[in-house]
Amino acid sequence: MVSKNVSAVTTADLGALESDKSVSNDGRAVAEIQRDDPDYIDPAEERAFVWQLDLWSLTIGFLGYTFKYLDQTNISNAYVSGMKEELNLYGNQLNYFTTYFNIGYIKWLPACEVLWGIFTCCLSTATNAHHVFGLRFLVGFFEGCAWPGYFTLISQWYLPHEMSLRMSLFNIAQPVGAMLSGAIQGALSTNLDGTLGRSGWRWAFVINGVCTISVALCAFVILPGFPERQKPLSKFYLKPRHIQIAKARARRVGRKPQIGITPKSFLRCFTFWQLWSVAISWAIGANTTPENYFNLWLKSLKTSSGQAKYSVAMLNYLPIIGQAIQLIAELLFSGFSDYFGVRLPFLLLHSAINIVSLIILIIRPSNQHTYMAGWYMNYISAVSTMLLCSWVSANLEGEPEVRTVLFASGTVLSYLRSAFVPIAAYPTSEAPHWRIGAKLYLAFALVATCMFVGIHFAFRWESKRKTSVKTDTIEEQVDTKREK
After folding, report:
1. 245-296: pLDDT as tens digits
2. pLDDT of residue 352
């Protein structure tokens, strides 16, 4: 056993050992550092530092991703608000608009935000489907960096037990963006339709793009970079002492700095089982695709006289309820997951709700309220992503490059699934009763559930192995010092 009397065992050694213990329970057992240690941080000072991060970097990230998702989902709102009729879209063009969007990944966040904002504005000038195809490709290409970029920043600045809630706060930008998209489109369809000769859906693209560009210009100043490579413009709120605190916190949990990715280190990332298992379960576990076609079902509903049951404004407002459900679920799942320090039980609860919602969509009950409940429950399926990302971040503290490539890989696989699978599963021409649809996504949900359980046991095995190796190493050092 390790003797507490032996001076040869340094604080760093014990800190490293405790770092691995923190990984085993998701960061809740952090090494207790003595006050005379240079890495000691006063708790009040640390809370103030985290508050600074939340106030500035998390806020600008939230706004950036809100408008990213708004720019991503506004095509569905525009489609049911007059775009379909104005551009003569009577085939599967809506599916292909999504496909062209979901092809892309690039690097520099604020510059990319400016560019995708410009191309979003350009969508207001589209006169046919081919214009929309090209512009959606460019918007998706430059938006591709948002998710992995922001999640990489979170994984470098926050401790494991802080990540899930922060990722969730960032992730709720998805439903907030979608809610704004529906609210904006509904309001513009009522109040600005025909102004200056433009349809309401065209004005929505202009306003969305201008908002995105404004947030992007702020991001140039506010995004902090990494603790070891701070962006100079962020020094107005992150002082030198803040950077010292950030680096000490990273050492506390054994986190290595971001050093950039070379071709060799990039290929090395794909040798980690965590990358493959989490990226695949991420892509198939968040079965949010069905919800994207909710308003097509709503548009198909008729009154007894054969008139459309819902107005254009209501077609945009009703999905907001589902997005609000997603927002609340994100906060509850992440908050309780961080509080209890576990991920698997909440992933399994997510899977149960997701599976029930898909079964309802497969059965297609004659009662419209029950069927609508199935659509609304499907919005909860998005919560698995942030649970997986915070889970794997805590288990890869010493591999920052792997975390970054994993976030990018999960994003790419999710985009590929969103780009091509709906063409076969949810062709617009089959709306509102799709032959494949929810059946395929139910299969995805069942496979993802099995993968969640497998990942849990693999993480436990990996944690025990690391702790055993570290303990043996320290004991060998102690024995060597004793012999001398």
Report:
1. 999 998 888 787 776 677 788 889 899 999 999 999 998 987 666 677 888 8
2. 95
Question: How many domains would you assign to the chain?
Answer: 1
Cα-Cα-Cα-Cα torsion 282, 287, 288, 291, nearest 10 degrees, comes to 180
Question: Is residue 378 one of the residues assigned to a domain?
Answer: yes
Nearest-angstrom CA–CA distance, 114 and 101: 16
Does residue 445 form part of some domain? yes
Distance from C-alpha of 455 to C-alpha of 442, rounded to nearest angstrom? 20
Return the pLDDT at 194.
Answer: 72
Please report, for the chain, how many H helices and E strands are present, in that order: 21, 2
pLDDT the model gives residue 344 = 94
Task: Report if residue 351 sits inside a domain.
Answer: yes
Whether 6 is covered by a domain: the verdict is no
**CATH number, domain with residue 315:** 1.20.1250.20
pLDDT in tens, 54-93: 889 888 888 887 877 776 666 666 655 666 666 666 555 5
Instruction: Tell me the CB-side half-sphere exposure of residue 401, using CA atoms within 13 A.
Output: 14
Enter the tokens of residue 200: 């309401």
- The residue range of the domain holding 302 is 11-483
**Four-CA torsion 181, 185, 191, 197, nearest 10 degrees:** 120
Instruction: Supply φ then ψ for residue 41, to 5 degrees.
Output: -125, 130
Contact between 406 and 278 under an 8 Å Cβ cutoff? The reply is yes
Packing angle, helices 146-157 and 59-78, rounded to 10: 160
Are 201 and 81 in contact, with CB atoms under 8 Å apart?
A: yes
Query: What burial class does residue 28 get, using C-beta atoms within 10 Å of its C-beta: 0-12 exposed, 13-18 middle, 19+ buried?
Result: middle
